[in-house]
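We include this case.
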Amino acid sequence: MWHISFSTFALCLLLLEIPGGNTTDYRIDALSTIDILNRTCKRCAEESTDFSYNFCRTSLDAIPTSHIVNLHGLAVIGMELALQNATNTISSIKSLLSVETLDPFALACLQDCLELYLNATVSLIDGVAAFLSEHYSVANEKVSRVMKSSTTCEGLFAEKKGEVCPLARENYNLYQLCNLALCIIHLV
């Protein structure tokens, strides 16, 4: 289950009032608060072959504030979800690093993934700040870097034949959450 902080909730409420470049097609009307989710996820899925409409809907539906924000708010929620994923993955990696039965190759990969995820959290925080400052290209670059980190972590384990990445689900989720945030940043 996803968790969103009170500060994020308050921020999203403030974002309801922020006018944004080309977002008039995405404004929420009084009759349909969920329509923005459908339209945004659908449009992103149409624009990218590796974007998952179902993942998008499930992720955004899980956050109550996503039903009351505009497109800017959805972008922040996407980045916050990616940050929550990265933070949770750091905890998972630290737990895995304490497992004594892992071979040295897997331990080295996990150590590298830990560094990637630690850097990802910083990039996501910077990305949110850039987005809120309307530096959309900087936000795009920061989130793109995090997206690449998830595939890099996955690829580390693939360097040894037969090695299975214990973070496959986390890497996939981070990739999809970044993909979601990037698409919405692009739409803004």
The CA atoms of residues 127 and 139 lie 4 Å apart. The chain has one domain: 6-187. The longest helix spans residues 104-132.
